[in-house]
Design brief:
Layout lengths: L23 H13 L6 H7 L4 E10 L5 E12 L5 E8 L4 H17 L5 E8 L7 H15 L8 E5 L5 H15 L23 H16 L8 E5 L3 H12 L3 E7 L2 E4 L19 H7 L4 E3 L12 E4 L18 E3 L8 H9 L3 E3 L1 H4 L2 H15 L5 H26 L3 H20 L4
Parallel strand pairs: 3-4, 3-5, 6-7, 6-10, 10-11, 11-12
Antiparallel strand pairs: 1-2, 2-4, 7-8, 8-9
Helix pairs in contact: 1-3, 1-13, 3-13, 4-5, 6-7, 6-11, 6-12, 11-12, 12-13
The structure holds glutamic acid.
Length: 438
């Protein structure tokens, strides 16, 4: 099962031959139990957090272009809202399932808490392959899905955003359908919209930017010079390409990048701006590599995970680092751009081998943080400049990085456990202050 990117319409499902694939929910629950050991939290709170508050399952009928009617299944998992409205993406993907939505919604709860955003966790989607739908069909499907979810979402209840197979246009349709039925324009019902209808500048680049910021901080923490830092990036969609280009701009040598077509490698560092991202030209990384002087193609795209680099950024799909290949990873630091790229078993192997994994819930949290900025702008009816968004994002990321770093140092735990400790500490405190009622 693929768990997928933090925020990308453009990345493809995994063709994952892991002998022991793990569902997002299984990984999320095991990570929760693992981290809970380090924290003096009421076991009742941990038990409550293993279960989502609600999962909405809706039928979404669609009139196809040929006049036939097909009924799709949609979900919205709402994991926990003790700190604020549910927040998280909607994905259109053939592998969407209730279990996957629940697991991903749990990660959103931790992600928002690590970043200290006043949100809980949600995730949803439709079991559909958007590549098999025309633009008109996607629009009708989205509008009907918005109508089915209308009682459960809203700027104060649950705020969806883009995820795999959905994008800014999808969010605009969702917002329009919701607003038309509510009788007023309510931009804050979703984030990740085009700026012209209440989206924010800098939202699209934000997950990749946060990955780059965190990679920079991690490199510095472990004594690497950013200048000449060697980096490999799996996945050249929005997250991977933005992260790679920023790190390249800051002096790192991005020696390898890949997409579903394969991987390219240049020991002197690629010109990342010249490599087409998925949005610019889908799956064109190897095409670029065949023409560019000094650039080699790797035999197998997944070999990128085993390159001898300082920093590896898996930014494509979930479950790519598994018990099968974790022993072959040669990077010193892994920065998770995708959601759930590392299985629980792989995580343990990497930890034993002294490889530092900076978890998704911190590294790619720039997406939901920019979503928070967007929500604030929608509510206040006041727009921010791109510069403002970037400055605020930098400062939020540095403050979250410091919170997690302090736990790493104080408890001698992995970065993932430390991030969970930060998140769980905040959530547990909120639950204890609010109390269990009745
Ligand atoms: N889908 C994104 C994620 O996994 C962002 C969610 C949001 O902005 O609400 O982090």
């Amino acid at each position: 099962m693929s768990t997928g990117t933090a925020d990308s319409a453009e990345n493809r499902p995994a063709t994952n031959d892991d002998a022991d694939p793990e569902s997002a929910l299984a990984t999320a629950r095991r990570q929760l139990e693992h981290a809970a050991v380090h924290l003096d939290v009421d076991p009742g709170v941990i038990e409550r957090l293993k279960h989502p508050t609600t999962v909405h399952r809706v039928a979404v009928p669609l009139e196809r272009d040929d006049g036939s009617v097909e009924v799709f299944t949609g979900y919205r998992a709402q994991h926990d809202d003790v700190r604020g409205p549910y927040k998280g993406g909607l994905r259109f993907h053939p592998e969407v399932s209730e279990e996957e939505c629940v697991g991903l919604s749990m990660w959103m709860t931790w992600k928002c808490a690590v970043m200290d955003l006043p949100f809980g966790g949600g995730k949803g989607g439709i079991v559909a392959d958007p590549k098999r739908l025309s633009d008109g069909e996607r629009e009708r499907l989205t509008r009907r899905f918005a109508e089915e979810l209308r009682p459960f979402v809203g700027p104060k209840k649950d705020i969806p955003a883009p995820d795999m197979g959905t994008d800014a246009q999808t969010m605009a349709w969702f917002m329009d359908a919701y607003s038309m039925q509510e009788g007023e324009t309510i931009p804050g019902v979703v984030t990740g919209k085009p700026p012209v209808v209440g989206g924010t500048e800098g939202r699209e680049e934000a997950p990749g930017r946060s990955v780059a910021i965190v990679a920079r901080e991690a490199a510095d923490y472990y004594g690497y010079d950013l200048d000449g830092l060697t980096v490999a990036v799996q996945g050249y969609g929005s997250v991977g390409a933005n992260a790679a280009r920023l790190l390249d701009d800051w002096g790192a040598d991005v020696v390898s990048v890949s997409d579903t077509g394969g991987a390219v490698y240049d020991p002197d560092g690629l010109d990342t701006h010249a490599v087409p991202s998925f949005a610019e030209e889908p799956n064109a990384v190897t095409e670029f590599g065949s023409d560019a002087p000094g650039v080699d193609l790797l035999d197998d795209g997944s070999d990128i995970l085993e390159l001898d680099v300082d920093v590896l950024v898996p930014a494509a799909v979930g479950n790519v680092l598994t018990a099968d290949n974790a022993t072959d990873v040669r990077a010193d630091v892994v920065v998770e751009g995708a959601n759930g790229p590392t299985t629980f078993a792989a995580d343990e192997i990497l930890a034993e081998r002294g490889i530092h994994v900076i978890p998704d819930i911190l590294a790619n949290a720039g997406g939901v943080t920019a979503s928070y900025f967007e929500w604030l702008q929608d509510i206040n009816r006041r727009t921010w400049t791109l510069e403002q968004v970037r400055t605020e994002l930098e400062s939020e990321m540095l403050s979250a990085w410091d919170d997690v770093r302090r736990e790493v140092e104080a408890r001698d735990v992995t970065w993932r456990d430390a991030a969970y400790v930060v998140a769980l500490g905040r959530i547990a405190e909120a639950k204890s202050v609010r109390g269990l009622w009745p």
